């Protein structure tokens, strides 16, 4: 019986030692303190590991820890997500670039899927595909002839935007499109839809698939001191 009571007491003390208390959080902005709701999506804080003492020691050393877990964030923008060509005569044509920006505080993996030559949307065509190319530049200007990548081969490419001050500030890129319309491309509409995937490489486990806090953050209060 004594052993059972001892185990219960130790369990209670252990639970007390690990207790986590949500704290009220403010954000200082434009010279004002703004109180954030307990369920806000910006920053939350918890206190943990209560301590006390009582004896005649002449000196006490009390350990305090401030731990800040920062989630990876991503901001991106594109000034367009579609090219629409109106071609009257066959030729090798270049479209001026779509401009995009990417900013993050961690490595970002860039991959591609679904890119291919635009395909004839009608019932039949002498040549049902239009040869297409893409290239990405980090500066303005005309693309180098050796930089073009055939549309189907874009899906095999991947890039890692490495964590850097430049990435934190925002990186600008220029996406170019090129098509080769030939005599045997029948009159109609040709279309292809591809996807650019941005994958955060250093995300915290307390962020869910939608980019929000998980339901119970206290599970991620660590015991590291």
Explain what you see.
With 225 residues, the protein is mainly beta. Helix content is 9%, strand content 34%. The chain contains 2 helices and 14 strands, in the order H-E-E-E-E-E-E-E-E-E-E-E-H-E-E-E. The protein has helices spanning 2-17, 165-169; strands at 20-23, 25-29, 32-36, 45-48, 74-78, 91-104, 108-113, 119-120, 131-137, 149-150, 158-161, 171-181, 190-191, 195-200. Strands 5-6-12-9-10 form a 5-stranded antiparallel beta sheet. A 3-stranded antiparallel beta sheet has the order 11-7-14, with no helix packed on it. A two-stranded antiparallel sheet has the order 1-4. A hairpin with a 2-residue loop joins strand 2 (25-29) and strand 3 (32-36). It is elongated and about 95 Å long. Mean pLDDT is 90; it is low at 3-17.
The tally of beta strands, per DSSP, is: 14
**Overall pLDDT metric:** 90
Cα separation of the termini: 35 Å
Share of residues in strands:
25-35%
Main-sheet strand order equals 5-6-12-9-10
Task: Name the helicity range.
Answer: under 10%
Order of helical and strand elements: HEEEEEEEEEEEHEEE
Please tell me what the overall shape is. Answer: elongated
Radius of gyration: 29 Å
Total count of helical runs of at least 4 residues: 2
Q: Which regions have little confidence, pLDDT < 50, spanning 5+ residues?
A: 3-17
| Biggest beta sheet summary | 5 strands, antiparallel
Determine the structural class based on helices, strands and strand pairing: mainly beta
């Amino acid at each position: 019986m004594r052993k059972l009571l001892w185990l219960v007491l130790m369990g209670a003390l252990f639970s007390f030692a690990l207790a986590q208390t949500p704290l009220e959080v403010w954000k200082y902005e434009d010279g004002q303190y703004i109180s954030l709701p307990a369920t806000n999506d910006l920053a939350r804080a918890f206190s943990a590991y209560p301590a006390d003492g009582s004896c005649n020691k002449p000196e006490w050393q009390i350990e305090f820890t401030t731990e800040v877990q920062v989630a990876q964030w991503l901001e991106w923008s594109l000034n367009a997500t579609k090219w629409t060509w109106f071609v009257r005569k066959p030729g090798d044509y270049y479209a001026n670039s779509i401009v995009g920006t990417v900013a993050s505080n961690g490595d970002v993996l860039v991959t591609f899927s679904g890119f291919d030559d635009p395909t004839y949307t009608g019932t039949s065509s002498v040549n049902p595909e239009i040869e297409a190319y893409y290239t990405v530049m980090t500066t303005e200007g005309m693309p180098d002839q050796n930089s073009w990548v055939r549309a189907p081969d874009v899906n095999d490419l991947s890039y890692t935007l490495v964590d850097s001050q430049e990435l934190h500030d925002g990186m600008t890129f220029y996406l170019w499109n090129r098509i080769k319309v030939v005599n045997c491309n029948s009159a109609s509409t040709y279309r292809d839809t591809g996807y650019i995937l941005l994958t955060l490489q250093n995300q915290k486990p307390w962020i869910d698939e939608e980019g929000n806090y998980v339901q119970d953050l206290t599970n991620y209060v660590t015991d590291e001191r």
